[in-house]
Write a structure and sequence with these properties.
Largest interface: A-B, 21 and 25 residues
Largest sheet of chain B: 9 strands, antiparallel
Order of helices and strands of chain A: EHEHEEHHHHHH
Number of helices of chain B: 5
Strand content of chain B: 35-45%
Low-confidence stretches of chain A: none
Shape of chain A: globular
Low-confidence stretches of chain B: none
Helix content of chain A: 40-55%
Order of helices and strands of chain B: HEEEEEEEEEHHEEEEEEEHH
CATH class of the largest domain in chain A: Mainly Alpha
Oligomer: heterodimer
CATH topology of the largest domain in chain B: Naphthalene 1,2-dioxygenase Alpha Subunit, Chain A, domain 1
Shape of chain B: globular
CATH class of the largest domain in chain B: Alpha Beta
CATH superfamily of the largest domain in chain B: Naphthalene 1,2-dioxygenase Alpha Subunit, Chain A, domain 1
Strand order of the largest sheet of chain A: 2-1-3-4
Helix content of chain B: 10-25%
Structural class of chain B: alpha+beta
């Protein structure tokens, strides 16, 4: 087994993969891609690796995967012998998938706002922030109901790939001018996430949520 | 957004992009001190900058210099030249352009943070500082009147991982140099070659009083690290600072020295604020009511 991650440290999507690699205590090599200012993810060399021109990409032996959510599922499916990170039981699997898709979809508005504020991406910042707030409202409501039910994770009684996928761009939202003030359940979840063994913080994530 | 009327701020060179930002023939629009400008790459190493009016029509042409991995321009008659930074001309130096990063605060908050060693253990934990070694040893600060720059010398700090080249902790020696209200640099011990210094700059493009772009070009002695990893190191550090900077209040810099309570480690900052106040600048400060 040789795992290689095409990585950019400041990418929240790459951070999703680095987090799970850490939680699963997997060793891997990093190929750093000069996303900014070099835009090497759009270079011909990199488009041969991922025609979408996006990070991250994971190579696992002969297998090459793009899309952070797909990579999380692959890692959990292949390397997590406990089965907890990607639960197969019918009561949890669907919920985990639903929030995993939410992480790759609606929550990415927070990533767009961050790219605008941080790296000067030309986009409608008000629309991006509004969409991110709408997504955070939905996740906060879900987590509030989970709290009432005595639970603290997105699905089940332990963290799953859904938590890992949702965490980075929620935690990094401040980088894009999106505060957590209106989302108490989200803040509680951000705090408990940091207690997962082998959690590693990232630049831009406030020390005290 | 309107262009500032602060004559002191208008008379400074400010960064507005970097060489190679666009292909030859391309241009980018940006803002300096509230003024819309358009920079055009007219040839491989040639750039032109014009002001733009509200309709996007080009107005007057501005002076341009391409140095230190940045494109500089100015809206008025500059009262000082760009600083001389000889390290960028040394043949074995690796010149690293990390692009620019947006930060919503006063330009002087950025300068002051760059000048500050006391935050290393807490903001850059296990990289530029360690939580068990927080002491800022006494250092010297002087206003060099002949060049109108502020220098902080004899600075040192224990650093677990001082640079991409570092393989262990070291006592790093620093010299800081404030070259204008919008530019600062430091010289720090090269890992493995204490006789030389890495030169690391921070040039600020103030788009408005609390809306800045920060450029961090470096001239490093490091034959080993990849360019990607050197950019990565600098951006990782800077984004740790950014979250702190954007939460500092007030965002505008208070120049009244009684507004905040400094400690001995802040003598550099105190000197900087006093120097700003004496210059008469008010752009980006909370002193406007008095101006």
């Amino acid at each position: 087994m040789a795992l290689k991650l095409y990585d950019y440290t400041l990418s929240g999507s790459c951070y999703k993969v680095r987090l799970l690699l850490g939680f699963l205590e997997l060793t891997y090599t990093r190929e750093q891609v000069d996303f900014y200012p070099g835009r090497r993810h759009k270079s011909l060399d990199f488009l041969a690796i991922n025609p979408l021109g996006q990070l991250p990409v994971l190579e696992d032996g002969d297998l090459r995967l793009r899309d952070a959510q797909a990579i999380l599922c692959h890692l959990a499916n292949k390397y997590d012998k406990t089965g907890k990170w990607l639960p197969r039981d019918p009561a949890t699997f669907g919920t985990v998938m639903m929030w995993l898709m939410f992480a790759g979809g609606e929550i990415m508005a927070a990533s767009a706002a961050r790219l605008h504020d941080l790296l000067g991406y030309d986009l409608d910042i008000a629309a991006a922030r509004n969409s991110a707030h709408a997504a955070f409202r939905i996740l906060d409501d879900h987590l509030a109901l989970r709290e009432i039910a005595g639970a603290q994770w997105i699905a089940g009684d332990h963290p799953t790939v859904a938590d890992v996928a949702c965490y980075p761009y929620v935690a990094l939202a401040g980088d894009g001018g999106i505060g957590h003030e209106d989302y108490p359940a989200l803040r509680n979840w951000l705090r408990v996430f940091r207690t997962i063994p082998h959690f590693d913080p990232m630049s831009g994530i406030p020390e005290f949520a | 957004m309107t262009v500032t009327t602060d004559a002191v701020a208008l008379g400074e060179w400010v960064a507005c992009g970097w060489p190679g930002k666009v292909p030859v023939g391309g241009h980018w629009d940006t803002v300096i001190l509230g003024q819309q400008v358009r920079a055009t790459r007219t040839a491989a190493d040639s750039y032109e900058v014009f002001t733009l009016d509200r309709t996007g029509t080009p107005g007057r042409q501005l002076p341009v210099q391409s140095r230190y991995c940045c494109i500089f321009t100015t809206l008025s008659e500059p009262k000082r030249p760009l600083p001389e930074i000889s390290e960028f001309a040394e043949p074995d130096r690796r010149l690293v352009n990390s692009g620019c990063v947006g930060v919503n605060t006063s330009p002087y908050r950025l300068i002051e943070n760059f000048l500050d060693m006391a935050h290393f253990p807490f903001v850059h934990t296990d990289i530029l500082g360690a939580e068990e070694q927080t002491e800022v040893a006494s250092y010297k600060v002087e206003h060099r009147k002949e060049v109108d720059e502020i220098w902080a010398t004899d600075c040192q700090f224990f650093q677990p991982a001082a640079s991409k080249a570092a393989t262990g902790g070291q006592m790093t020696k620093y010299v800081y140099r404030i070259m204008s209200p919008f530019s600062i640099m430091l010289y720090k011990t090269v890992h493995g070659d204490p006789g030389r210094n890495d030169a690391i700059c921070l040039f600020i493009q103030p788009r408005d009083e609390t809306d800045c772009l920060a450029y961090m070009p470096m001239a490093l002695v490091d034959a080993v690290s990849t360019t990607e990893s050197m950019i990565d190191f600098q951006q990782t550090i800077f984004l740790q600072d950014r979250v702190i900077l954007e939460n500092q209040r007030p965002a505008l810099m208070p120049l009244d020295l009684t507004a905040e309570i400094p400690t001995k480690a802040d003598v550099g900052s105190v000197t900087f604020r006093r120097w700003l106040k004496q210059s008469g600048i008010w752009f980006g400060t909370s002193e406007k009511a008095a101006a």
